[in-house]
């Protein structure tokens, strides 16, 4: 995980990485702030991502990623029999615009 974080942090100072591990039968609800450009990438297992306002489900496998809409909630479910591991990659757009 540290190696992943270091490789992404080199690309820009406005990147924040958050690793999540969740257990079978559980879900993680998250709200994305308007200033953040956010992606989820799966590191272990298979996870459905439910984008609430879009009423859309997308299932991701290891190595796959998806952008998550800002100013909205989404749920990430662990449907496998083993824990899931995924990461959020946040790019703070407001700081990025100021730095430019």
DSSP helical segment count: 2
Radius of gyration: 14 Å
Low-confidence stretches: none
CATH topology: Jelly Rolls
Structural class: alpha+beta
Please name the CATH architecture: Sandwich
Percent helix range: 10-25%
Biggest pleated sheet: 4 strands, antiparallel
DSSP strand tally? 8
Number of domains: 1
Report the oligomer. Answer: single chain
User: What gross morphology would you assign?
Assistant: globular
| Mean pLDDT figure | 87
Biggest β-sheet: strands ordered side by side in the sheet: 1-8-3-6
The CATH homologous superfamily corresponds to: Jelly Rolls
The N- to C-terminal Cα distance equals: 29 Å
CATH first level: Mainly Beta
Strand percentage: over 45%
The helix/strand series, from N terminus to C terminus, equals: HEEEEEEEEH
Question: How would you summarize what this structure contains?
Answer:
This protein has two helices and eight strands, in the order αββββββββα.
């Amino acid at each position: 995980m540290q190696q992943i974080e270091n490789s992404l942090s080199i690309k820009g100072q406005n990147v924040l990485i958050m690793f999540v591990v969740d257990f079978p039968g559980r879900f993680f609800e998250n709200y994305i702030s308007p200033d953040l450009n956010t992606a989820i990438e799966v590191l272990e297992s298979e996870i459905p991502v439910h984008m609430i306002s879009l009423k859309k489900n997308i299932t991701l496998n290891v190595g796959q990623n998806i952008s998550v809409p800002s100013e909205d909630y989404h749920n990430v479910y662990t449907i496998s029999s083993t824990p899931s591991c995924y990461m959020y990659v946040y790019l703070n757009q407001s700081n990025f615009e100021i730095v430019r």
